[in-house]
Amino acid sequence: MRTDSFVLRHVGPSESEVNEMVKTIGVSSVDELIDKTIPADIRLAQNLNLPKAMSEHEYMNHIQELATKNKLFKNYIGLGYHPTILPGVIQRNILENPGWYTAYTPYQAEIAQGRLEALLNFQTMVSDLTGMELANASLLDEGTAAGEAMIMLLNTRSRAQKKAKVVKFFVSNEVLPQTIDVLKTRATPLEIELVFGDHTSFEFTEEFYGGIVQYPAKSGQIFDYTEFVENAKKVDAKIVAAADLLSLALLTPPGEWGADVVVGTTQRFGIPMGYGGPHAGYFATKKTYKRTIPGRIIGITKDKDGNRALRMALQTREQHIKREKATSNICTAQVLLAVMAGMYGVYHGPKGLSYIATKIQNLTTTLNKGLANLNIKQLNTLFFDTLLIEVSNALKVKEIAEKKCINFYYASNSTISISINETNSIEDVNQILEILAEAEGKDKISVNLIEDYSLPENLTRTSTFMTNEVFENYHSETELMRYIKKLERKDLSLNHSMISLGSCTMKLNAATEMLPISWPNWGVMHPFVPIDQAQGYQEVIKGLEDALNEITGFHATSLQPNSGASGEYTGLLVIKAYHKSKGEAHRNICIIPASAHGTNPASAVMAGMKVVVTKSTAEGNIDVEDLRAKAELHKDNLAALMVTYPSTHGVFESTIKEITQIIHERGGQVYMDGANMNAQVGLTNPATIGADVCHLNLHKTFAIPHGGGGPGVGPICVVEHLAPFLPSNPIIPTGGKSPITAVSSAPWGSALVLLISYSYIKMLGTGGLKQATINAILNANYVKARLEKEYSILYTGENGFAAHEMIVDFREFKEKGIEVTDVAKRLMDYGYHAPTVSFPVAGTLMIEPTESENKAELDRFCDALINIKAEIDALKSGDTNCALKNSPHTQEMLTADEWNYPYTRQHAAFPLPYLKENKFWPSVRRVDDAYGDRNLICSCNPIEDYIDA
Length: 949
Description:
Helix content: 25-40%
Largest sheet: 7 strands, mixed
């Protein structure tokens, strides 16, 4: 065995196991399987042209060398990004712990109680600090959160406002520039009219449905928005406050001065800047908006025994269900980052956060006094962490500062701003004063005493926050370490067993891929530093873009979209920009097959398109004649087709090139959803099937971990004629020659985790990437071959094989009273997370084993499902007191004195022998979703608050 071959560590089955598996499948070799699975006319004629694969050791040397090319300046740039101190106990026990970063989205609540509690802490912290009633479990970043708020308020206008077509939205000039750019992007397709101005002189009229302000403002000034909000309310306009969350430990929270929505980022709660992300955006609002708030909400309910339990609340709001009626296409959160930020709040508590905020403000005050002593004018009368300073020559300041490895924000030729952060000390203040003294030709001064600062009474927080005991109990490292471990033990992650989620590709997240994201040279980079200070990042970004171009067959890539749904949205906007450039802006019809992901129609609507749905055939494929007829009907206005390939049903449809040709002949562009790219890499590609643009889920195919529901990254790759329209950024230019405005806050989105995909491609190389795809298809067909003797497999390709996933039908068991949910919950007793439930077909499981699992693990999973089939067969119709209906079985239940069930405890908890060696215990019994939705509680309230509801 080659110990320096990464592919041998990444791919599960050994050579001998592969030989056994192909026999079970019924083919003579892997090559025969691939030939019979993928249509010959879309197979790549040549191997990918990528650099030779590196060993793990070689890669670590390579990435260390690149890291040294990033210059570690002290950053006072601000603009929503700040150096932070990540407590070691959080870094080691969450960020670097596969028990946390390999978990899936908590759709199966019974085996996700740990991260659900961590997210509930996050929501409580955000609600308390903002003074709002309700917060979600995080959004992608501050800019997109602001965009979601603007759209939510549009969708919830009064009847009178809708009738009067009120579409104006005020944007303060003091809002962060990147947020303004994202607002422009979001507003245009929905025909929202943005009106920019000075909030101090702006007068609302009945033409406005809302507005947004920054708190503290972009310049650093703290404004009292009370009168502004009162004026807005007179015309029924709603106000969004984009607020620095840490400052709210000291400032009057927006909820107390009348804001309707508060948004922002939790980056400065211990999260590294990472050249732009990932960071957990936050979104807090009033309970009035509980059914329209975007993203996920964690709520409290009870389980089958009446015990407190947590789960994702109000899921009927989600785009998966609402599709083209959805008001948002958000289908992810930044869970890993939200967990870290929330745990930062748990570790420090309200007193600790107040201490950090006070320290920052006092250091800023000290700097301000030093400037006054130097007779240098500072323009902000009230401030938290940012000073706006008049200088004679900003370029001269920049030259002197950069020689001392310091970055400020240069707002104009005569003004600079400086933002203080939690890492700073009085020595830093003196260094700043020295630079400014030199630039202004003044004598150097030194300050020795940190000045106290007090805000006016009307801007000073008087209300308490974070009073729940969780924010008081874990301030020592020992206690927090144990608390994190206690939560971790409640969650099933990839470090316990396979998570075979169809369409979600829960593959190995190799340790070597993950290690560099903890290194300071990657973590401390501000996204708006000059490019020459980030050459290591630039090489990674260029290398990843080039590799993704080669893999997809496309011309150019944008790494800015920071989720898969964001990638869909961006791709459609690029298509719209292309049509507009040709004088065909009227093209607005988007054709989408009925089997598409729920995000597809939602994204199309968000992009201002009209959705036309095409039928599926009895075999589950796209009905080509129906598609042809609808493309012909709408040919004058046809903008795009959105297609998933291989299909959502797990099939390489042989008509795909005919389908894309139909669209092109009628003037449309083809968007390929890259959710199933794990079945394409190295064997075929989007360009070959005739697509024009695709998004790639780097958190699926390219090994970025799911992190319990995020971070996700969804770059888009495009053909040459779409490349000019790739998105830019208002501070650091990116994208094409005629770019659309930004789709996320940072120039390259969640740049820190791009290292993971970069390393995955570097260490696998051409041969390894192709082998990973082959093994993904092999593993899926092996599972299919074992399960089809007991269950119906709904769809297969023309030769009877699946792609990298398959749909198993459980609807026939309804006659015995067994639902697919019962099977999903019973799988927990066998130590497995359920595959994707009831998508894309109700009453089914969609299974995707990925290439990372070996034959032994696949066999255990198959044995579990086969044993469950035997349990179903043994049931009499209507038997509700059975292991399937009572699952999952908790340890408390199994060790109780009484056991009033017609089956044994062993059958409940240890139905197969392997479980005696590796048993995972669900921490609650089956949760009551309906109860939780009727009695919605989304913060850390006392238990009495919901039991008595």
